[in-house]
Amino acid sequence: MGSMIFSSRLVKKERIASQVYHLVFEVPPEFRFTPGQFALMDIILEDGSKLKRAYSIASGPSLLPKIEFCIKIVEGGAASPQFEKMEIGTEVKSVGPLGNFIRKDPARTAVFIATGTGIAPFRSMLLDKSAASEMYLLFGARYETDLLYEEEMQQLAVRDSRFHYTSILSRPKDTYEGNKGYVQDLLDTELPAGLDADYYLCGISNMVESVKMALEQRGIPATKIFCEIY
Ligand SMILES: Cc1cc2nc3c(=O)[nH]c(=O)nc-3n(C[C@H](O)[C@H](O)[C@H](O)COP(=O)(O)OP(=O)(O)OC[C@H]3O[C@@H](n4cnc5c(N)ncnc54)[C@H](O)[C@@H]3O)c2cc1C
């Protein structure tokens, strides 16, 4: 699918965690994408200068001509703090869709592993109505307040018996009753032994590298591991 330069208009913005926004943009009617792809946005800074940053599309294709994003305001970051101030109606120039982080074989079992806003491309894949395989989503975050789309994912898992969702927190309150630890810890507890699947990893580089190593230690060949590093 070819990419295009397009203008998108912010139509909705919702804070879904302490530093994370769910953003809805209206895009031109001819815009198409494959779940897992991203848009490269022009972010205009206060002094009028411009930075380009990539953001994974977090919505399914059926939402077009709207697309959604899940964007973290990175503390001290050069561009992302602009999303905090961005007002409804703002036009953002972008190039997209870009990227190859898409399901290699949509019929094969897929294990999605994400921390933080790394959940974005997987939400798009999960909301893709043409997706028809067994899918697992293992999601990691620090605190209770960092859980993203938790209720939506739980409900998806209730509605679709082929989708399995588990989250884990590394620094929850003592009273937290869910899983405690790192997303790698879920590999042994949540996936059936001998599972034949493709593994998709998305998040910041430390996490992706350590999960990749954990998978390889469990005998998963590198050819079945696909990564998107933020
Ligand atoms: C293909 C691709 C898709 C991306 N999709 C998303 C997305 O859907 N949502 C999103 O929030 N970001 C996403 N990013 C990251 C995004 O492009 C920016 O890097 C991020 O917004 C920080 O930009 P900045 O200018 O504020 O920070 P900079 O001043 O450029 O500082 C970068 C620092 O922020 C860290 N960082 C970058 N992204 C994150 C993050 N999400 N959480 C924690 N730390 C981070 C980097 O590791 C680095 O240390 C994606 C990156 C790539 C390459």
Explain this structure to me?
With 230 residues, this protein is α/β, with parallel strands linked by helices. The chain has two domains: 4-98, Elongation Factor Tu (Ef-tu), domain 3; 110-229, 3-Layer(aba) Sandwich (Rossmann fold). The chain is 17% helix and 36% strand. It is built from five helices and twelve strands. Strands 4-3-6-1-2-5 form a six-stranded antiparallel beta sheet. It has a six-stranded parallel beta sheet with strand order 10-9-8-7-11-12, sandwiched between helices. Strand 11, helix 5 (205-217) and strand 12 (225-229) form a beta-alpha-beta unit. The protein is globular. The mean pLDDT is 96. Bound molecules: flavin-adenine dinucleotide.
Unreliable stretches (pLDDT < 50, length at least 5) are none
Strand order of the largest sheet: 4-3-6-1-2-5
The name of the CATH superfamily of the largest domain reads Nucleotide-binding domain of ferredoxin-NADP reductase (FNR) module
- Backbone CA Rg: 17 Å
Strand content: 35-45%
CATH topology label of the largest domain: Rossmann fold
Mean model confidence by pLDDT:
96
Ligand species: flavin-adenine dinucleotide
How many discrete structural domains?
2
